Amino acid sequence: MNILVAKKRSNIIRNNKIENKDICFKCNGKLDEFFVCKTCGNNSYISAKQRITHISDENTFKELSFNKIDISKKCNYEDRINKAKENTDLNEAIIIGTCSIGGIKVVLGVMESKFMMGTLSVSVGETITSAFEYASVNKLPVILFCASGGARIQEGVFSLVQMAKVNAAIKRHSDKGLLYISCLTNPTMGGVTASFGLLGDINIAEKNSQIGFAGKSIIENLYNEILDSNFQTEQYNENNGMIDIIADRKDIRNILLDLLKMINNNNKVVRIDNKDENKSKTNDDLLETLKNARDIDRFKGKDYLISIFDKYIELKGDRINSNDTSILSGIGNIENKSFIFNIQNKGRTLKENRETNYGLTRPEGYRKALRISKIAEKFNIPIINIIDSAGADPSIYSEKNGQAIAIADCLYTFSDLKTIIISIVVGEGSSGGALALSVCDSIGMLQKSIYTVISPESYLKIMHKEEQVSNELLKSMRFTANDLFEDKIIDEVISESDNLNYNANNIKNFILNKYEILRKQDIQELINNRYERIRNWDIVAKGE
């Protein structure tokens, strides 16, 4: 059946007052077509049916009919169910069906918060589980809009076990290489957050949404303290690594469409030849090379992100602790081809450097890069790693939070990740902090960038007992792009200048050229060649 939205907006009851749906309940301002206040920007209630109308292509939504398991009579709350059905004109707290978004067919589910607070019942759990099973059989992506107070306590443990049942179906859907996007809206709490709410390949949070496990008032009463107003907001969850994207309600459809196109994009790119007679120019002044690589005005990771990609969406968070802004991760398009990116980023100003921790990546940065890279593997999307860091963050905080194992996991996982990986050093590449993103199928360096085992200052102090850095002493480090090309550590020296577009075009050409070569290999050949590459990184040192 097609789901249509009634044109007339009804009144709602809030705090025992009858309020008009055309008016914002916070400031009495007028609402726009998305039920967002034109004056204060507050999101007002939107029904599941209205949400479907905003997200799906016109007249494409067809509700899927699954077995509805109603145990309300058994659990003695039949009257409340009947009242919820009457108030919402729905049979349960979720509507799920197929539709198209920009012509791409998906399974779309939307929870209805007005139906017993959108709680997870046996019937809701069975519907979501069946939808993922249907999507697995028909090889369709799933998009769920979550809005729930948690498990339906009237159904006791029957409700509780739905969390495990739904998650098992999501795992099977994921194992088939299929996409799941979770859109968390106000509120998403309890058993929904702790099961399918945060399990998306990509998690999108609508602005002005409360997202959490235990309710704020419960925590305040239990611990006898007043929590910050930012607690459990969408921004709080992004800062703690749980959310990829925060979006205005009006923008969610376009973001979904971009993600669907990028992740399902199998268009071929046109190979661009990268011929530049200056590419192999040497630079004998090592002090100047070191200065250039560290120059505060040197182009940063974000500059290259903006210049190389035609369109991109940043994805945030490690799903454990927080979001590290020293690495920008996400998905973008170059010449109609989708790539996953992990880009180390520094700042220019003091404020920017504090925000990016001076480009010193913390454990959550490496965990984020690894999480996003596993999305690339799942959907067979090539990865671009751009390296520019003085090293991994050496703080007590990072030590306590597993810096060493975070880097080790990157080296371990990237060694046989089943997709193409291309890395580029664009500034400073130092120590294990750079190596974590260097395990790849092909690596290039901008000609004025450097790659070292340790900072030159520390190296000279340890090895030569010297405080003063000089050209003569730096030669033994062999850290320039030309040195490393000769030593067969990297594949190409990429010409650069003081012009951002020039550099970006050369990096783009390097990426596309290498991609065109690597995509001709099957996965097992790619992994075997990567292993041999790693195995022979020290071939020159061995004298072979």
Number of helices: 21
Structural class: alpha/beta
What's the CATH class label of the largest domain? Answer: Alpha Beta
- Share of helix among residues? 25-40%
CATH topology of the largest domain: 2-enoyl-CoA Hydratase, Chain A, domain 1
Number of strands: 17
Major beta sheet, specifics? 8 strands, mixed
Mean pLDDT: 88
Secondary-structure arrangement, i.e. CATH architecture of the largest domain:
Alpha-Beta Complex
CA radius of gyration: 26 Å
Folded structure, characterized:
The chain is an alpha/beta fold and 544 residues long. The chain has helices at 48-55, 78-88, 122-138, 156-160, 162-175, 190-197, 216-223, 234-239, 252-263, 286-294, 301-308, 350-355, 363-378, 396-400, 403-414, 431-435, 456-464, 471-474, 481-486, 500-518, 523-535, and strands spanning 11-14, 17-20, 62-63, 94-101, 104-111, 142-148, 180-188, 202-206, 245-247, 311-315, 327-334, 337-344, 383-389, 421-430, 442-446, 450-452, 492-494. It has two domains: 49-263, 2-enoyl-CoA Hydratase, Chain A, domain 1 (Alpha-Beta Complex), CATH 3.90.226; 286-535, Alpha-Beta Complex (2-enoyl-CoA Hydratase, Chain A, domain 1), CATH 3.90.226.10. It is built from 21 helices and 17 strands. The strands form three sheets. Strands 10, 11, 12, 13, 14, 15, 16 and 17 form an eight-stranded mixed sheet that branches. It has a seven-stranded mixed sheet with strand order 3-4-5-6-7-8-9, with helices on both faces. A two-stranded antiparallel ribbon has the order 1-2. Mean pLDDT is 88; it is low at 1-20 and 266-283.
